[in-house]
Task: structure prediction
Amino acid sequence: MRQYPAALARLTEQFARLPGIGEKTAQRLAFHLLSVPTEEAEEFAQTILDAKHSIRTCPICQNLTDQEPCPICDDEQRDHGLICVVAEPKDVIAMERAREFRGVYHVLHGVISPLNHLGPDDIRVKELLQRVSEGGVREVIMATNPDTEGEATAMYLSRLLRPMEIKVTRLAYGIPVGSQLEYADEVTLLRALEGRQEM
Result:
């Protein structure tokens, strides 16, 4: 005998396919959606469809947008000679939250990861090289995560960009504000020493 109606089981399965959603959370979400008024559930479903139909990648920076080019690439007040390379669109949001970077971005939509069968052809490397080859770029900042895949991707890109005679830099990493030295790992301490600044 089946525990749940088939439609509820399918809904739970769909929620469980989302990243970070386990079986229990998927069940909670499915039951919640069944408890809301039909209009609210329809609005939720329509919002998902609207997002899928209207959001695409910017032809310049590859970030997600609903206009061409995206608002950042279209902003003449930004420094278009300074490109910050990030792995995912959510990284742009994190950088923008700091309100300090006034350049533009390039979103790779992933990192080189042999274990996940992702190579340079699976991410937006060609688009970055095309952009830089068109001229006007002074510096490319590698802002991929400081993990194995992020470091490998940054190193690979820097080797490709070096012959183009532009400055290629990497974000400095170090001790997080509010933490204590005794809890920092060796790699973090090394990065903090390498990225030290004069006071």
